[in-house]
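thought: fold this chain, then report.
action: predict
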Amino acid sequence: MLGDGTSRSAADAVRFLADGQYRNPAGEVDACTTSYFHRPEDLAAEVTDAGLRLDGIVGANGIVKLLLPDLAERLADDGRRDEVIRLLRLLEAEPSLLGCRHNLVAIGRR
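observation:
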């Protein structure tokens, strides 16, 4: 706990949301490396600021694990794997879900 009664993890989350930086100064192996994150709208702005035409932003991973807790079993079955892929394609560019992704991919052209 910090002096104001806030837990360290809550304080880290507040800071992360404010500056988009995840910090791992101790180099904890089980934690994410020190990283910089984007909100979907920030990534779109960076693409256009770079002089590219933004064709879209899609989520690379993250959301399907929330929707399908039995993901490993579904992927092991050919028919069910196709169902997972259809779901991923349906949800990959859904604007209301982009911020739930671990990774975003911006698609732009010169």
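thought: worth noting. The helical segments are 8-19, 40-49, 63-67, 71-76, 78-91.
final: tokens above.
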